[in-house]
Amino acid sequence: MAGAVEFDPSRGYRLNPQVALRPEPFGALAYHFGNRKLSFLKVPELVDLVRGLAEHASVEDALLDVPAERRAQFRRALSSLAATDMIRPR
Length: 90
Prior knowledge:
Layout: E1 13-15, E2 19-24, E3 27-32, E4 38-41, H1 44-52, H2 59-63, H3 71-83, E5 87-89
Antiparallel strand pairs: 1-5, 2-3, 3-4
């Protein structure tokens, strides 16, 4: 995607308003109604994190609720979600 902004965990993000999260036993399906992309959020904790992003000043602030040993994994997942416009900077 031309002109895409690099994911920056020091910034605040939010779920894109064009994205719907459908709960599933494994976590959730995220569907983007604009670009028609589908993503699987494979752990419920990631779903909670994505839903709550807008309540935090930055991704790093939101990650404080995640055990330290899982933060890098969640950072990578959020970076991937940002690359497909599922989440976007505030």
